[in-house]
Amino acid sequence: MKDPRDYPLFVRGDRTLLLETDHPRFDEARTALLSFAELVKSPDHLHTYRMTPLSIWNACSAGVAAERILHILHEFSKYGVPPAIERLICDYASRYGKVRMRQTAGELVLETDDSVLAEEISGVESVRKLLLDRLGPVTFSLRPGDRGHLKQAMIRIGYPVADLAGFASGESLQISLKTVCRKGEFGLRSYQQEAVDVFHASGTIRGGSGVIVLPCGAGKTVVGIGIMAATGNCTLVLTTSTTAVHQWREEILDKTDLRADQIGEYTGFEKEIRPVTITTYQIMTYRKKKADEFSHFRLFSERNWGLVIYDEVHLLPAPVFQMTARIQTKRRLGLTATLVREDGREDDVFALIGPKKADIPWKVMEEQGWIARAVCTEIRVAMSEKERLNYAVAPRRFKFRAASENSEKAEVIREIIVRHSAESVLVIGTYVDHLESLAGELKAEILTGKTPQKKRERLFNDFRSGNLRVLFVSKVANFAVDLPDASCAIQISGTFGSRQEEAQRLGRILRPKKGNRQAHFYTLVTRNTLEQDFALKRQLFLCEQGYRYEIFDEEDWRNAGMSRAGEAHYAIA
Known about the structure:
7-stranded parallel beta sheet, Rossmann fold, 8-stranded mixed beta sheet, single chain, 4 domains, 37% helix
């Protein structure tokens, strides 16, 4: 007879899953659950996951069938799986691919094998207005320009479309990967090659477009370059900043046989359109007045692109979603470390960019040595009497910033820097005035959104070379900054409960270190304030990935010292 004590999971009828963190099978169960469920809460002893339609459709797109999901639930459940949940999972999974989009005799059609579903589809106003003629009992014609809009409408009524209509060839561009780059021998790692292969697969529901999810430091840019070589087409790359544009260009030149004159930068400084063109989301969405058109959207049609790459796709601005809906004939690749979007538009990423193609857990990458081992520590800092009083009487909308700018954090920052005196240290924060004040007090260099591009690159180069050991950075360094030698990050403030920001900031220090050194990620939080509450939300994504936050009060951290960092008084698993 089954002994419940041998199993770590409660499967509930409301689609939530409760996982015991102290159970010997916790790690095994967590890894399995992440293939089809989302982490919702992570208190000390019981983690809560939720199965959603999108989490199951992403699982299906990655080849995890309903049968496999049910097997995992039965494998770990203490008391079995409620029959209603089994039916729900099978229902959600069966919807993936039930409605298909194809090219038939030169015409774009929407089809299903279910005549009742066809009637339901044709009765929904948001869908019906995008359909042209009814070609048969289960087939409809539609305009090519409505391909993306229809997929958005369909996923919102619970039926994701399997887009099998294919892609335009685009302008050909022969790209070969080098076997030697500036760091020595070069070749795609096994997981990078698998990501390239699964994206490039054609003729199936899974092939042609979609999102690759890899940890920061695992080489998402290299995967993008590998896919460029596999598709062999002119490529448009959209990324987050001019710094990222330069890094993409350097990586492409370093790892492919493309010449410098084949790669264009389309930024506020240059407007080059070449076979490979790299731009930013900011320039694409620029307009002088709110009522003006997005004039730079013309870049999407300036060349016959065969591939569009969306770097950090979780940051894709709403206007670019609108344009992406119109270019569904082009292959589309999303790259990200986390599919978490603060605006909740993950379904639009699924519909317009494509489903998740590859997602390798961070801890798996760490165990295989592809990213650095990270120790995450939260230090709760007390406020001075004066600042406590100011915090207490401040309106709620100002309390978070007041706690973030706690002056007592300065001494803790100084102590961490001393403890890591042999390492390169990033101090990351949100509020520029506070960062500038601290950098001045500690006589350190600072980089913010106001820093000119040439100075940014000089600071980054000095930091990489070791000439600069401590660098203060604002939110501009959250994304696409290549700092391979950074091994310690001190987060002094964040954007409320942003999980994706937490993941990106940890990613600044995850590239493998010489001598297999650990990376250290500190978060300074003002004790007993709103900042402490938001910190728990920020940590959610990294807890889902298997990281453990050790939590200290300031005095206990000082007493414990670095050698006892694992003996916190309380911790989040």
